[in-house]
Design brief:
With 452 residues, the protein is mainly beta. Helix content is 6%, strand content 47%.
Length: 452
């Protein structure tokens, strides 16, 4: 194994052990996500420079070491210059600096000039920083060093992760489900990402998922455990639920605002100890024994859809009040003719269910609202359309309007210009511009009714 590969392996192992120690068994259960920041960079060559940020994962206010190792693979001695600009997000104590280093207070840069004999000689520099505040949306930060900056080489850059440990609150819905009933597990989390969720459902299942939905096949009391982790640490919260064999009827329509004639599928969310029987009543005289029926309501109106669930442990009933509506009724009021340049008023009249009106005035102009005041700039036939929307659909109405072209009228505007004078005779006054003169009139365009 090469020296660089061995160093990377040791760094990865050290970071893993440090993170596991920080989070303990909970961290291991939650599998701390690996940060994109490695805290390591190296520049190979006759003069090698290696940089390590340790640890590469920190919390605000913690200490972090910057370790530089310079290696001379040539046969002669070298005295390279290494410049380390101190980032704003790191605090370096400049009271005592290591040997062979200087600090420029103006530029905020540490300079290191080690002397390296040939044949693999090495020198090491270690600087300790205090890490500044975390930014939730930018947890990865970088530190750059420059080897022989006078030569204009690109910097050597290593990154580290700084953030806050995770927090979590566990929510279970419903809190007392029935056998076979979907249970939504929700995690309200905080802290710096990336965040991972690991769930233990109390029946030997372990789920690595975000806010999963689960089903319990048997009645009983189960302890639900949530582990939330980020690269820094992990936290664990727990709660208990009791799953009953008693039937629990529940459902919802796939569209809570259907229209008359539209097929509506009823999603069954019931549970209970099987076998279960289902009895549906849709409120319009129709019934069904299917688990998840689809029904069409012929007319708009208010209906009470009822589901009864029967099982070995009992019976339960659930009712959903469903309003079946219709797209809005609307009428477009618009003059049959208009004059280009003169404003017209278009109005949409409809029932009380309308909540949005959109217009296309036929000349590329769009508008919203029940009343629109518009001015056509060109003549011709234009088709004006309006879309009227309520909770149950959209109705389109439209009408043609004939727009007559306007006429032009003259408006006299003075046009001023300068005319150069002829060349003066010998001994005369120097040439120059003549005072501005009125050269003529300009005809401007105006719109209006054609004159007889």
């Amino acid at each position: 194994m090469s020296r660089v590969a061995k160093r990377l392996f040791i760094l990865a192992l050290g970071a893993y052990l440090a993170l596991a120690a920080r989070g303990g068994p909970e961290a291991m259960a939650a599998q701390l996500p690996a940060p994109t920041a490695t805290g390591y960079a190296v520049r190979s060559g006759p003069l090698q420079l290696e940089m390590v940020l340790s640890p590469p994962v920190v919390a605000p206010g913690e200490a972090m070491d910057l370790i530089l190792t310079a290696t001379n693979e040539t046969t002669g001695g070298l005295t390279p210059e290494v410049a380390i600009p101190i980032p704003d997000h790191l605090d370096l104590s400049t009271g005592i600096l290591p040997a062979s280093t200087t600090y420029n207070f103006t530029t905020g840069t540490v300079s290191w000039q080690p002397f390296l004999n040939g044949q693999g000689a090495q020198e090491r520099l270690s600087l300790r920083f205090r890490v500044g505040p975390a930014e939730i949306d930018q947890p990865v930060r970088t530190v750059s060093v420059y080897l022989d900056p006078a030569k204009g080489q690109p910097p050597l850059t290593a990154s580290y992760w700084v953030g806050l440990p995770p927090t979590a609150t566990l929510i279970v819905n419903p809190q007392t489900p029935a056998v076979g009933q979907p249970v939504q597990l929700l995690a309200q989390t905080g802290g710096t990402g990336p965040l991972t969720q690991v769930w233990e459902t109390g029946d030997h299942r372990r789920l690595e998922a975000v806010d999963p939905v689960i089903v319990y096949p048997l009645p009983g009391t189960y302890e639900i455990t949530l582990h939330v982790a980020n690269p820094l640490a992990a936290t664990t919260v727990r709660t208990s639920i009791t799953v009953s064999g008693q039937p629990d009827a529940a459902f919802m329509p796939d569209d809570p605002t259907p229209t008359a004639g539209q097929p509506v599928r009823f999603v069954n969310q019931s549970g209970g100890q099987p076998p279960l029987q289902y009895a549906w009543s849709f409120g319009d005289g129709a019934t069904s024994g299917d688990r998840e029926p689809t029904h069409v309501f012929a007319a708009a109106g208010d209906y009470h859809v009822r589901l009864s669930v029967q099982g070995p442990a009992g019976q339960d009933t659930f009712t959903w009040p469903l309003t079946v509506g219709a797209p809005p009724q609307a009428q477009l009021i618009l003059p049959a003719t208009a004059i280009a340049g003169e404003a017209i008023v278009a109005q949409l009249v409809g029932d009380a269910s309308i909540r949005q009106v959109r217009w296309d005035l036929g000349d590329g102009t769009a508008a919203t609202g029940p009343v629109v005041r518009h001015l056509f700039l060109t003549g011709g036939d234009h088709y004006v359309r309006a879309w009227v929307e309520n909770d149950y659909g959209v109705t389109e109405v439209g009408r043609w309007i004939a727009v007559e072209a306007g006429v032009t009228r003259s408006v006299y505007l003075p046009l001023l210009a300068t005319v150069p004078l002829p060349q003066p005779e010998a001994g005369g006054a120097p040439a120059g511009p003549r005072p501005a003169q009125e050269l003529g009139n300009v005809t401007a365009i105006s719109t209006g009714r054609p004159e007889e």
